[in-house]
Every structure is written in structure tokens, then in C-alpha cells.
Amino acid sequence: MAKRKSKSTTIYDVARLATVSPATVSAVINGTATVSPTRTKRVHEAMAALDYHPDHIARSLKTGKTNAIGMVVPDVTNPFYPEVIRGVEQAAGKAGYSIIFVNSNEDPEQERRGLQALISRRVDGALIACCDNSTATFDLVARRNIPSVFLDRVPLGVNAIRISTDNFKAGFVGAKHLIDLGHERIAIVAGRMDLSPHVQRVEGFRKAMQEPGIAVRDEYFRTGSLSSETGYQIGKQLLQLNRRPTAIFCTNNKTLLGLVRALAECSVSCPDEVSILGFDDFAWTENFHPRLSTIVQPAQELGRRGMEMLIQQIKLHDSGETNPPSAYETVLLEAELRIRESTAPPASVGLRVAP
Amino acid sequence: MAKRKSKSTTIYDVARLATVSPATVSAVINGTATVSPTRTKRVHEAMAALDYHPDHIARSLKTGKTNAIGMVVPDVTNPFYPEVIRGVEQAAGKAGYSIIFVNSNEDPEQERRGLQALISRRVDGALIACCDNSTATFDLVARRNIPSVFLDRVPLGVNAIRISTDNFKAGFVGAKHLIDLGHERIAIVAGRMDLSPHVQRVEGFRKAMQEPGIAVRDEYFRTGSLSSETGYQIGKQLLQLNRRPTAIFCTNNKTLLGLVRALAECSVSCPDEVSILGFDDFAWTENFHPRLSTIVQPAQELGRRGMEMLIQQIKLHDSGETNPPSAYETVLLEAELRIRESTAPPASVGLRVAP
DNA sequence: CTGTTAGCGCATTCAT
DNA sequence: ATGAATGCGCTAACAG
After folding, report:
1. Which residue, counting CA atoms, is nearest to the C1' of nucleotide D9?
2. pTM above 0.85, yes or no
3. Which residues contact B213 (CB under 8 A, 6 or more apart)?
4. Interatomic separation, CA of residue A35 and C1' of nucleotide D4, rounded (Å)
5. A30: CB within 7 A of chain C nucleic strand
6. Quick check: B57 and A60 CB within 8 A?
7. Residue from B119, B120, B121 nearest B137 by CA
8. Which of A89, B20, B156, B283 has the smallest number of CB atoms closer than 10 Å to its CB?
9. Would you say A129 and A73 are in contact if contact means Cβ atoms under 8 Å apart?
10. Protein residue at shortest CA distance from C1' of C5
11. Per-residue pLDDT tens over the stretch A184-227
């Protein structure tokens, strides 16, 4: 009544039915060697008849390659990552790789455990968005010589292969947009300063502010978590300042959302009284009222290119280049400033025009 | 100069260093048999010294189990699914399963190919959100006897194990909310009628309308894709009707977004002139102005419970129950009507109060 | 309690 | 062009 393992059909079954050797079957499957048309046909028929599917597990054990890569992400529910995943999926699918997915939940311990699992599963490589700025994860993959590329959130100060948005430039461009509009009282909701993208965006912001000599006042520089709640809280504080900012720059997509709510709740109209600028572009950015100006990261391309870089790394690894001369590579993708309706000149700007 | 495969350390290496047999090492790793404390300690030390990680591939080949499940999703960028994935991840992680991820891109062909890959990788089971209402996918896994549970979008009319929101009830409750508020001119943006959740939501909607005898006018019943663009287009059409609806019910989260934009563009105020009600709850729902009333699916729990059901199925499968009497199970989870600010009585309701 | 042995399904020499 | 034999790393019998 109980059958423990319903033995699936193997290459031997196919060989027997096609009256050839297992090696021949293997050859036609992998195109490893040329086999006569007659036997090729017989093999194909046998495979179809038996509904045979090669066992990747056995193949992997033999070849040492799994054709799977690990993807570790800090928070799938941040809509930026699904976009990235989509890009990864496309490039991976095209190259015959499957994706083993790990969500670290912004927890270094979970990140470590997930990575261990990936290592045990012998993934051919890993695509990693870290959950903090520690180099522990980098050390782990480097020590075990796992082909890896770090994406979006990258470890700084080590020889990692990385790909991310040019966040310095993005921060610079965003601030410059606000400055060019005539704003001087510009606040920034800077997110988590232990994450590379935020650090770099802030640096770009400071650079842009420095050029025209606008001081970054302490009360305008705020950090915190990446939640909409944080954006909401900081937003309310900012709006209650005696010297209220005329523009607010958010380095994160969710904080922007909370900020919008704070504005509505304080009956501050946007962009008339306060301009706001954020990051990333999702369905809601376009449909909010006013439509939100944001700096759009090429999320999908980030995933696609990241995967391509990883494939490159895997090839290098397999060809035995232990320490390729230029092992160390950083790819930066351009973000795009998409100006919609939430940024405009400050109300006072008209007054200053007269000579 | 080139070293093709940097042989990783095996169970034999550990055994040698610990001066025990490989079987003993295996026993301490898996707790299969009791080994003396002395040897246990030696083994642990050897493993640590060698930084040994068991090879899941080899283990799988031997045991016939991969401890991996496949998860196929139609569109990761629909924020509903990341939420589900998160739940799956939690339950899977706890039980020691890894997730092999497939995004079908709403394309049956990609869904089929992804499933084939999962089968070749010998996943222990699959968690599937279909991309259409065909039973092809069900047939595929049923024929190969792969433990599977269908989630959210499920094939109807077959003996599949399923879990989803109680969509009929959700549709009913949503419509009833609008009716109780006093609305009679209620339009519905019904999404894709080849998807089980939408079909059932519409049925619930019709049932609720039928009780008080409100007709569902053809011009108020609209279907289309699941994009915000569709919501926008349909929204504009609805608002230009001579007999404009006083409430609009969206069976999908993205169409709701487009609808909101249509309202803003037509300068129709919500909820004063038109109430709107949608599905799902994300950061933006809470932060829109007005805050959006929605029917909230327990997305994360859907994922968690779905994974638990799958584990159950896998156990059943392993114990050899070829056709368990109650192989056929459907779990329905309750959605929650979260009333915020986008639904209110129609403007005309005050007029009708007088006897 | 511990060690020896035999495959899991496949790709790969090496003969032919 | 084809087939026979070998072993990838591990666990499950079995024997001691």
C-alpha cells in the first residue's frame, strides 16, 4: 500500500528502451559528442515515451556545477527588490540558471545562515544585497572563494565585485534640482547611515549644497529607519520647525510615503509650500496627488547586469583564474531624475527676483 | 596555473582528522545514531577546523530529498506576492527548506518551463500561484506526483490542494459595506475574469447586490487587465457617465491606484462625490490622501499556511499514501475590511432620509 | 556504539 | 561513433 520512493526513470531506462548505452543518451542530451541520426532519434523517442527528465542533482554531483545561484535580499517587501529580482530572473533564465532565494529580513544573523545554506547547496555563485555595512558576508564568500557580486547595498573598503546605482551622483543631482529651483532651506531624510546607498546619497547631497555655499543645518539633517512611519515622524517634526524647510529630500522610497502623509495631516500643500523629492518609481509614485518627483534607479537593469557580472565571475572561477588581475570591479548605473509635480520653486522666490 | 575544481573538504577529510569513520561523522551531523561524547567532540572540532559544510547535493542524491521547494509566482512586482513570499520564507526556513524561485511573468509558457526546471531539480514540493485558469499546470504536477499546493490563484474544478483568501466573502463584504453606506450606483472594476480570485470576488459582489435587489448595470461592470493604467482608463470612463456611480469597487490593488489618479484628474473629490474601495494593504494605502479603505488579505499568513500545508503534503507523499482519502483540501482565509477614509455615504443620502 | 560497504543517477575517460 | 567502467560525496544497511 505504501511505496516509499516511486523510482523515477533514469538514463538507464532510456538507454534500454532505445537499445543504446547510457553514455549515448548522455551524449545526445548534452550534445557532448556526435551520435548517428538513427540512434539520436531512438533516444529522443525513448525519452518522450518515458517522460524522462534528467536528474539535476546527480548531474551536479558529477560535474560540480549546480547551475543555480543564490540571491540574498534584505527585504522582499521593499518594492525595489522585486524589480531587481525580475531583472535577475531574466538574465538567469536565459543562461539556464535557477535562483535560490533568501530573504535576510534585515538581520545579519539570518543573512549568515542563508548564505551557509546556499554554500551547502553548492550554488555556483551568489548575488547579494547586504543588510548592513559589515564585511562579514564578504569575508565569508571570499574565504570560501564563492563567485559573488554585491548589489545595491555593498560592502565598502574591500575588493568586492559590486554593482549599484551611482548613488553619489543621484544625491548630487537631486539636491541640485532643488537648489536650481531656488530652494535654500533644504532638509534631508537620510535613512540609515550604515547602508552604502544612503551614505553615498548624502555625500552627493552635501557636495551639491557646498558648491553654492548653502549650509546643511543640523536640524535639517535627519536619519532613522527606512519605514514610512519614520518618514511620517520626521516629516511632522520638520514641518513644525520655526524655520521650516521649503524642500525635503528623502533618500528612501518608504520614508517619502510617510512624509507625504505628514504634509497632508499638517495641511501643508505640496509643492506650493514645500517641495518633496524621493527615490524610486512605483505605481504609486505616478498616481499620488501631486505626482511625485523622484530619482529613479534602473532597478531591473541592476538585476540583469548584476546577474551577467556574476555569470562572468563564475566563468572566471571555472577557468581557474585564482586571482585575476582586475578581480576588483565596481559598476555604477545612472539614476534618472524624473521631475513630476512635487517639486517647484519655493513660494518666496518671486519676491527675490527684483534687483 | 589553473585549478579546475578546488576540491572542497568532504566527510572523509573530517573523519580522518577526527580519527573516526565517515559514518560516525554522518551520524553526529544528522543525529541519526548516538555516538560517544568523546568522538562527538572530536568530530565537531574537526569540522570546525576544516570549515566543513555538508554537501547537500550528495546528500540529496542519496536520500532522494532535496529539502528545497519550488515557488512559482506570476508577477513579483505585484506587492501582494512579496508579502506571500515572506510568509513562505518564514515557514520554510523554520523547517529547513530552501526556496527555488520562479517568476512566470504571467506567461503560461514560462510557467511551464519554470516548473520543468523545478522538477528536474527534484524539489520536494511546489507552491504555485498560477498565471491563468488552465489546468495544465495542475495536470503537470499531478501526473508526476509532485506534492503541490496552489495558492491565491488556483485551478478550479480539479482535486488540487489550495489555499487562498475567501474571495467570495471578500467581494460580498466589500459590496455590502458600500450598500450599507447607502450606495446604489455601485460600479466594479473586476479585473481579469480568467483568474479565480477575481471571479469569486465578483460572485460575492453580485450576491451582495442581489439581496437588496440592486441591479448590476452593464455600464458599471468593467473588466480588463490588472494594471494601474486600466484602472485609470476605466475610472475616467466611469466618471464621464451620465449616470455616474457614487461608489467604485476595485478587485485589484493596481487598478485602484489608477482609479485614484482618474479621480484627481477629473477633480472628483473622494469620498464626497465618489467612494472607492479596493484590495490589499501596502505602505501607500495608508499614506494616500484620503487614506484608502481596502479589503486586506492576510498575505503573509497565506504564505506561511501554504508552506505548512505543503510540508504536510510532502510528509504524506513520503509515507507512501498514494491516494489519501481526503487528498483534496481547500483552505480559505478571512480577509479584513479596513475602513479608512475613501468610503462614505453618498452625497444624496441625506436627501432621502425624510419620510 | 562504531566501521565497512554499496549504491543514489549521471558524465566522463578510455577503449573499441 | 559507441559502450564499459569509474567515482562525485554522502547515508543507510549491515556487521562487528
Report:
1. B58
2. yes
3. none
4. 17
5. yes
6. yes
7. B119
8. B156
9. yes
10. B23
11. 999 999 999 999 999 999 999 999 999 999 999 999 999 999 99
